[in-house]
Design brief:
335 residues, alpha+beta, Rossmann fold, Alpha-D-Glucose-1,6-Bisphosphate, Chain A, domain 4, five-stranded mixed β-sheet, 26% strand
Length: 335
Amino acid sequence: MIGVLPDLPPNVAGFRASGEVTKDDFEKVLFPEIKKHVALSGKLNFVFYVDTPLKNFSMGAWIRDVWLGIRQFASWRKIAIISDVEKIRNFTDNISFLLPGVYKGFPVAELQNAIRWAATEEQEPEDQVSPHIEQLLPPQTKGKSTMITAQVMAGKETDARFIFERATGRLLDVNEWTDHCGALSAGFQLTDDEGKPLMGRAAVGDYIRIDLPGPATGEGKGYDWVRIEKIEQPAAPDPNTGGIALMQVRPCANPQLKDTNTIAHFLEDSATSTFIIERDGRKVSATVYGRNEVPNTTYPGTGDKVRNAVVGTLGAIGLTRIQWKALVEGLLEKE
């Protein structure tokens, strides 16, 4: 059965699954309660305490009724799944690439932490680009723009300088991005202008081969490709005011194919991703600014057109956002 968790913050819907769980539990308890929350606030943070072995879910209930069933709600923000079953927590942590919202698994002992996490509202920063950053970005002329950011506040400015320098090094070490992003991340490989793997720090003119989860491109030989067109690093950051490090990439043709200019990426080459590490006193931020994001459906073959239309659209509103959110957080995290 599924019951409603009591005494939750008003912006959180919470449930506990115990004993035998069937499709009726979702249709008669869970979904109606969720609809009430969405009707009141227009968005939803969700806590699901799995206090029963997975075998007690009826056939198909776990995948069909929990994970696929939530597709009908467009306003998912945070989803916390609480269970002492490690497989359930790992599945929860990794499902964000496929479904709307941000997912996180918690052990039962951290139930209250899970509720606090789900209840915490994060500011949406898309329209709040500072003037000094705006001048570093390409003008927004078509398609979508995105802004994905993370920040930390250091105890001392010396600590902030260390975090800034470490994050800058991580940004330029493209081959380590996958490790910073975590499980089910895209794979990233720095290459030269012939598509051969490179080691070391990125430089202007290098390429990045991206292995996205899901369908691959034909033109990119299984990968999406971008070219690094801009890198800026402060030679000596002001110890009092901070500094900015920047790298900008743009979709490009597969450098392994010298006889084509066809863009091997799910976005057109009007799109850019600008990665900026900034220190302002004790605050250090890592942000990805996407500009002019338009799905690349003009020139690829039929198969790639369909793939790019789907991935490009989802990327602008979900997949890319989740991927870059994991990266900017990883760039700032401790070892």
